Amino acid sequence: GVLAKLLRLPNEPSVNIKLTGEGPLSDWSGSATAALDGSEILKLDGRHLQTPDGMHRLTVDGGGGFGSLMPPALRPMFEGETRIDIAAAFNDQGLVQVDKAHVATGALSFAAFGTYDSKGENNLKARLAGTNGPVDFRWPLQKGEAQAKINAVDFSLIGDAQAAILDLAADVTSVALPDVALGAVKLSARSDGFNVQAQSGLVKAAIEVGEAGFNDANLARLVQVPMKIDANLSVTKESIAFNPVTIESPGVGGSLTGAFYRDENTVSAVFKLFAVPGALPPAAAAKFDGTIAL
After folding, report:
1. CA nearest to 196, candidates 140, 258, 116
2. Could you report the per-residue pLDDT of 26-45, keeping only the tens digit for each?
3. In contact, 148 and 174? CB cutoff 8 Å
4. Is residue 240 within 8 Å of residue 260, measured between CB atoms?
5. How is residue 200 annotated by DSSP?
6. Distance CA 271, CA 275 (A)
7. Which among 34, 8, 30 has a CA at the least distance from the CA of 21?
8. Residue pair 271/254 in contact by the 8 Å Cβ criterion
9. Model pTM greater than 0.85?
10. Strand 108-117 relative to strand 135-140: parallel, antiparallel, unpaired?
C-alpha cells in the first residue's frame, strides 16, 4: 500500500501498524505492533507518566524484525532481531534524563545514559558500535549511493551547561562515494567550554585519512595520503567560523579561513594552498622544481 511505497519496501507488501493502550495521556500504557502481509514482525510496550514536578517519564521495551520495515539502503544496519530497551524522563525546561537507552540489532549496538540539561549539570554519554564487524551505513544519492563502514562512534557531554566539555570521536573503516573511496578514517571534535544553551563555543576538530582512491587521475595525484585536516571552529547559532582549517598531505597542503552562515546557508572563505610538483599532471610538473603556491 501507500506505507510500503513510502518505506520503499520490495514487492509493496501489506503493512499494518496498530497502537493500543489505556489511561489518560498523563498516565498511559500500551503497545504498538507492526505486521507485514498479516505476520507480526515487531512489538513494543510503552508507558508515559507525567509526575507532579513536571517530568515526563517514558519507558519503551520490545523488538522484532525491525529491518523488514526499513528502506533497502538501511536494512544492513537492522539485520536480524532488534531489541529496544529505553527508560528516560524529560521536561519542557531542556532537561533529559536517560536511565538507559539500548538498541541492539544483528549489526550494531547503541547505548546511552546520563543527563542532558541546557541550564544545569550535564553527564551524558553515548556509543554506537558494530556487533559483527563495522556498521554498514548506506544512503542513496542521485547517482549511486554513499556507504560508510563504521567501527565505533563515541560521544560525551560533561559539566555545567555554560561551559561543558563536549567530545566526539568516530573510527570509520571506509567511506565510499560513486567516484571516491577513503579508508582508515578517524574523526574527532572537542570543546572544553561549550555553551549548551547558547549553542556556542570553540571546537577543535580533526579528520585523518589513511587510504584514498579516486576515479579521476588528476585527483589521485593531488589528494595523497596520509592526510590530516585540523580545524579550529568558532560556533554560534548564526555561523561557524574557521580560524583556520589546515590541510597536511604529501601532495597538497595549506589553510583556509572563513565562515559558514547558517541562516543564509552560504560559505565565505579565503584559501592559501600549496602543492608539490608530483601532484600536478606530468606536463605541468616538469616546469617546477619546488613547492608551488596555488
Report:
1. 116
2. 999 999 999 888 888 999 99
3. yes
4. yes
5. B
6. 13
7. 30
8. yes
9. yes
10. unpaired
